[in-house]
Specification:
It is a single chain. By secondary structure, this protein is α/β, with parallel strands linked by helices. The protein is 41% helix and 17% strand. It has 2 domains: 190 residues, Periplasmic binding protein-like II (D-Maltodextrin-Binding Protein, domain 2); 96 residues, 3-Layer(aba) Sandwich (D-Maltodextrin-Binding Protein, domain 2), CATH 3.40.190.120. The strands form 3 sheets. A 5-stranded mixed beta sheet has the order 8-7-9-6-10. A 3-stranded mixed beta sheet has the order 1-3-2, covered by helices on one side. Helix 7 links the parallel strand 7 and strand 8. The N terminus is likely disordered.
Length: 304
């Protein structure tokens, strides 16, 4: 997409959302004793799931909730928040920071430090990030269960003794990327026999696992299909990857102490495994995102 296209597309999308909200909106509560909030999500299953969890928790505590669950890509989110059409949405600490700092590489594997830098970056936009969740959606490296058993692997540092005979599959920039082969060499001291240029967490990587042409593949830590494909993520025990912990991003005007308390309590209970399981239920098993969110809240005694 060209810059000129973006210049007219984002305002057009903001206007479309404003008209949709005025016409009807997707509400989660008819009235709220504490006030009204609009929860947004970009157009993917994980974002919608997290938005539903946040929204339902806030509705339970007396807020009238409206959902905007198809905002499109990340470029739309900031102007929609600034315009007051959405009050909050689920973000990821490192990704948000690098978006706002225009790729200045300030994000680290430290979730608290990355979130602090994020708050400095978004404060001029009238936004605030709350406490980061233990749940993290970041680049990860997976192996088949057979490879895990063969080499007794549980974490990335376990690969060091055998990596010289293995093939890594990832995107075309993996060789020079800090999050991929270059970072693995610097942080873990490992160099693969071969690095195959496939895709980033996509169908080519999955096909290569299936036909045995790669031993290790780049995935995302909350992918919902890994278990069904017989794949296991190796723990990043030396903290190579940036802290893409789940974190709510709010308009400062909406971030009152009660809203912050509710969302921080939710995020404190979320785990990476939870998000992966729910992502599988929605994206793979095609279950309803709202129902999956409700079940998670019930399982974690939020309604009690």
């Amino acid at each position: 997409m060209t810059l000129n296209h973006r210049r007219w597309l984002v305002p057009a999308l903001v206007l479309a959302i404003a008209l949709t909200a005025a016409a009807c909106g997707e509400t989660g509560a008819a009235a709220g004793s504490r006030g009204s909030l609009t929860v947004g999500a970009v157009d993917n299953a994980k974002s919608v799931l997290l938005a539903q969890i946040y929204g339902q928790a806030l509705a339970h505590d007396g807020y009238a909730i409206t959902y905007e669950l198809k905002l499109g890509n990340r470029d739309v989110v900031t102007p929609v928040l600034e315009a007051g059409l959405v009050d909050l949405y689920p973000g990821y600490a490192a990704t948000e920071l690098e978006y706002f700092n225009k790729g200045a590489k300030q994000a680290t594997s430290d979730a608290a430090a990355t979130t602090a830098k994020l708050n400095s970056a978004i404060q001029p936009f009238g936004l605030v990030a709350l406490k980061p969740s233990p749940a993290v959606d970041q680049y990860a490296f997976a192996v088949t269960k057979a490879t895990q058993t063969k080499y007794k692997l549980s974490k990335l540092s376990d690969l060091a003794a055998v990596v010289g005979g293995l093939t890594l599959g990832a995107g075309s920039d993996c060789g020079a990327a800090d999050y991929c082969a270059a970072g693995l060499k610097k942080t873990y001291g490992m160099s693969f026999r071969t690095v195959r240029s496939l895709d980033v967490d996509g169908p080519l990587t999955r096909a290569a696992f299936k036909d045995g042409s790669i031993d290790v593949g780049l995935v995302l830590s909350t992918d919902g299909d890994l278990d069904s494909l017989g794949l296991v993520v190796l723990a990043d025990d030396k903290h190579l990857e940036n802290a893409d912990n789940v974190v709510p991003i709010l308009r400062q005007a909406a971030a009152n102490p009660e809203v912050a308390r509710i969302l921080n309590a939710i995020d404190a209970k979320l785990t990476t495994a939870d998000v992966a399981t729910m992502n599988s239920q929605v994206a793979i098993q095609l279950q309803d995102a709202a129902a999956v969110a409700t079940a998670w809240l019930q399982q974690h005694n939020y309604w009690s």
